[in-house]
Amino acid sequence: NAGVMQNPRHLVRRRGQEARLRCSPMKGHSHVYWYRQLPEEGLKFMVYLQKENIIDESGMPKERFSAEFPKEGPSILRIQQVVRGDSAAYFCASSQGTGRLSGTEAFFGQGTRLTVV
Amino acid sequence: DQQVKQNSPSLSVQEGRISILNCDYTNSMFDYFLWYKKYPAEGPTFLISISSIKDKNEDGRFTVFLNKSAKHLSLHIVPSQPGDSAVYFCAASGASYDKVIFGPGTSLSVIP
Fold first, then answer.
1. Is A61 helix (H, G, I), strand (E, B) or coil?
2. Strand order of the sheet with strand B19-25?
3. Are A37 and B36 within 8 A, CB to CB?
4. Per-residue pLDDT, A103
5. Model confidence over A60-84: pLDDT tens digits?
6. Which of A29-43, A67-81, A100-114 has the highest mean pLDDT?
7. B18 to chain A nearest CA, in Å?
8. I need a labelling partner for A32 at 20 to 30 A (CA). Which of A4, A85, A94, B99 fits?
């Protein structure tokens, strides 16, 4: 959905560098989810954030990965000291987070494709 | 531990026929289910959803059926069209389990 903006669309990093992926949710959405899709695999949940709060980071690797969703500005997924295994498509989704039974769904951005060389 | 399962990685269907994509879940806390469609190099797009108070939801050519006792849902596409060729993800969430959990996806090919 064009309403969720992710940038950059493509990111190339050398091993050991840092990668910063940005996600601007749809207007009015205060909940952000990050997912990772490894080649030939499905979407794996990484982290769920609300403004200034991490609600669930059970899918985040214990080291090198962090996420934030500040009061102002986009959500950032940060990967320090990238390794080849971090190469994947990273998708961000946003939702209102309330009224799911009324039909509020999570809308996805087009993803950031990270390649570690 | 995969809480949302799609046991068929791929499915091929003739144009005009019915496509049936299946999904099973293990977590009884889930009470809301969604289907997403994904084309290559694009983000997933919401298709249809169903809450646990219903057993069927229909939207045009797409119908989702939910069998709570079996923890099973299915997406029916009738009639199937070549433009439906994509990867379909089943997903689930719950009132007390707010993150959305996705299955691994089923790649549908609709053959003209």
1. coil
2. B4-5, B19-25, B72-77, B62-67, B56-59
3. no
4. 43
5. 999 999 999 999 999 999 999 999 9
6. A67-81
7. 24
8. A85
- B36/A56 Cβ within 8 A: no
Q: How far apart are CA A13 and CA B17, in angstroms?
A: 45
- Average pLDDT along chain A: 88
Determine the pLDDT at residue B20.
Answer: 98
User: B51 to chain A nearest CA, in Å?
Assistant: 6
Q: How many CA atoms lie within 13 A of A62 on its CB side?
A: 0
User: For B25-69, what is the HEC assignment?
Assistant: ECCCCCCEEEEEEECCCCCCEEEEEEECCCCEEEECCEEEEEECC
Q: Would you state the structure tokens that stand for residue A64, as one six-digit string? A: 């090198």
Q: How would you classify residue A81: left for phi > 0, otherwise alpha for psi between -120 and 50, otherwise beta?
A: left
Residue type, A80: Q
How far, in Å, are A44, A62, A114, B90 from residue B2 at the CA level? 10, 20, 25, 12
Q: Which residues of B fall within a CB distance of 8 Å from A101? A: 32, 51, 53
Chain A residues 61-90 with a CB less than 8 Å from chain B: none
User: What mean pLDDT comes out for the span B52-66?
Assistant: 96
The mean pLDDT value for B49-68 works out to: 95
CB contact under 8 A, A45 and B53: no
Provide the 8-state DSSP code for A87: -
Cβ within 8 Å, pair B46-A107: yes
